[in-house]
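Hello again,

I reread your note about wanting to compare the complex against the isolated chains. To keep things tidy I'm splitting this into two emails, and this first one only covers the full assembly. Below are the input lines as submitted, including protein chains and any nucleic acid or small-molecule components. They are followed by the predicted structure of everything together. The single-chain runs will come separately.
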Amino acid sequence: MTLRVAVLPNSTTYLDAVLKSADAAVTSLDDAQALVWTSSDQTGFPSSLPANVEWVQLKSAGVKPWIDSGRIDSQRTWTSAVGAYSADVAEHAVALLLGCLRQFTLHARANTWLKEHTWGTVRSLRGRTVAIVGAGSIGRSMIPLLKAHGAEVIAVNRSGREVEGAERTVTSRDLDEALAAADDAVLAGASTDETQRLIGKEQLAALGSDPRDGSPGVLINIARGDLVDTAALTDALHRRIIGGAGLDVFDPEPLPAEDPLWGMDNVLITPHVANPQNRMLENFASLVEENLRRYASGRTLKAEIDLHRSY
Amino acid sequence: MTLRVAVLPNSTTYLDAVLKSADAAVTSLDDAQALVWTSSDQTGFPSSLPANVEWVQLKSAGVKPWIDSGRIDSQRTWTSAVGAYSADVAEHAVALLLGCLRQFTLHARANTWLKEHTWGTVRSLRGRTVAIVGAGSIGRSMIPLLKAHGAEVIAVNRSGREVEGAERTVTSRDLDEALAAADDAVLAGASTDETQRLIGKEQLAALGSDPRDGSPGVLINIARGDLVDTAALTDALHRRIIGGAGLDVFDPEPLPAEDPLWGMDNVLITPHVANPQNRMLENFASLVEENLRRYASGRTLKAEIDLHRSY
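Full-complex prediction:
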């Protein structure tokens, strides 16, 4: 039976190919069983959905704004894109971590030979211990990368349930202890009511304690800006309580032009590009393909949104 | 029997610990069986060595300048440090490659939000093919890293003998074909008479051909500056024939302040720091420890210099 799918606000060549190969009919919303929403934000999203729409596929991995706005109802199945972009985002996190340890910001801004200045201070990732805070899909994707680079991993998650590949897993109640035990930390958790400002002054002090070779640890954030108290982070960087930060996400975004983070040579900033655009389109289409197949055969869809966990 | 070792021009705490644990006696050159030379260059090296010195351990991995100057004679065994620093240098090569693909130079120099400009142009290493030119110790150390990152490897070496982990290995005669087939390339070979200016205009054109998603490949050099025709590289970067370059080594070094490479936003420059200083001292001491053990038991030393191969 032909699936009837609405694609709004507009399709991509990747999605067109997927819909064609799934033999789906692209229809208007009033005829559709499923809606594929191809924008990352809610602007233009239909104010009410007809009852025939049984399933809505969103493009975002983090859906807190969708839940907060009350868009997501319990009359149909909603799926996010959690997991679809994890490999690329995990790669960016490792790139930022290496870039901070290897002092790429300082080097990229230099116009003279800084060897005397930096040969003694650049660091290797080999042999370091990295705390992954929020060991969901992105965090788990990072583990084989970090291990290949010779680093050890402490996973931090809500349940404390063992994460494969991590040297040990602790619950979020033991976050401060994990940060103190680790050299560096990567924030990879979802933005939920519980994780707002998870990283504040005390957590940064823990991360900066017991520095290896006199060089305190680095904080990476590729998750959401609101996991961090930005003022506390800026202060910890300014006072060199932590060794550096690699940041792809901010609160607010875009990071305002007058923000002091722009001027710091121990901060590597990327403008929310961990998930490169073309890869996003391609990976989103692959997820839609998989979920169309599951929908057609009546199986559970990937990345169904659980309103009780807000991700 | 106690080994008699001269350490010149000066020791380190790492070496002191190693000599002590090996029960070696630190002696003057006239009494020594072995000389450990702790400087990377030849300044101050004894103009002639007494016959009692049976073995000289150098600190450098690349010993072309030592061979060119005629220092290295055939009256005793000479060992280099080739291999001792490979893991850290391989890590730096991957960091530079990720940094170029993720446009860290442009981002590190920005003081405003560039997302509109760079979200469509940042690239992921996953799925790319990387040519490793000179699959010696550093090149081989890179392979598990690149594979963990989801990249494929074409190894290029003199013999064409299969390199473990590479999808395929070709001889240096097929260098241009390998560069054309790969997305990116990492130079990891020794500087020898045969490899001077190995990468010139034609090789850069091959590397830049058949770009994936309209973005031509990246060149990484963590080996020696003289493997590359710098003028041709600068031109290829300027004309965007290749997508970018991550460079830790230059010809000459230091890279002169007036060099145009400093100003390019598709170039990531580090000042010959791939092998961080503290790690170098630690890894060199480990090599000395291993070679003292081998010397004491009459076994073949690690990294014996072969004058016929000039590395």
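For quick reference: The longest helix of chain A spans residues 277-296.

B.
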